[in-house]
Amino acid sequence: MSERIVVGAALVEDGRLLAARRSAPAELAGRWELPGGKVEPGETADAALVRELREELGVDAEVSGRVPGEWPLRAPYVLQVWTARLRPGSAAPEPLEDHDALRWLGPDEIWDVHWLDQDVPAVRQALAHLGAVEGLRSRGPGSGGLEEPGA
Ligand SMILES: Nc1nc2c([nH]c(=O)n2[C@H]2C[C@H](O)[C@@H](COP(=O)(O)OP(=O)(O)OP(=O)(O)O)O2)c(=O)[nH]1
């Protein structure tokens, strides 16, 4: 079967990254992820992300770039991550579907939540990318910023 893309948003505002806690399915519930979802046939990845963010969070978002890389999920899915921001006048995000909590994480809080295992490398790469383009960066060793869990 050919690969199917799940898009995740590295949605940033005021130097903080949005994390969303899944409410379903049972094996993923309680773990944190980048909000997003599956790209539908005939849909572009960035259009899918804008649609998913509207459906899941009730926001009006725009995609600003692609985080290099691709991370395997349960076959046939792979995760791609795009940077995004809220458009002026957008509502604040709310956990409308698929999630039961949201958190804006500052640089020192990124690893405070229990990310889905497969999201850890994707979040790490997103932070490296965002650090380069938006200044969301670690405050250095010992700060808990960009360091990996247990590092
Ligand atoms: N949205 C999202 N899904 C992720 C991430 N990491 C990860 O393993 N997944 C998995 C969870 C799901 O099995 C799948 C995405 O499905 P979804 O339920 O979010 O997508 P969807 O809204 O299009 O779902 P559906 O109801 O159409 O099935 O990818 C992530 O960071 N974001």
From TrEMBL:
GO biological process, one term: DNA replication
Annotated ranges, domain Nudix hydrolase: 2-130
UniProt feature coiled coil, ranges: none
Cofactor(s) recorded in Swiss-Prot or TrEMBL: Mg(2+)
One Pfam family this sequence matches: NUDIX
Gene3D superfamilies, sorted: Nucleoside Triphosphate Pyrophosphohydrolase (3.90.79.10)
EC number(s) stated in the UniProt entry for this protein: 3.6.1.55
Statement: the UniProt record of this protein carries the keyword Hydrolase: yes
Family assignment from sequence similarity: Belongs to the Nudix hydrolase family.
Name of the featured protein: 8-oxo-dGTP diphosphatase
Source lineage: Bacteria, Bacillati, Actinomycetota, Actinomycetes, Kitasatosporales
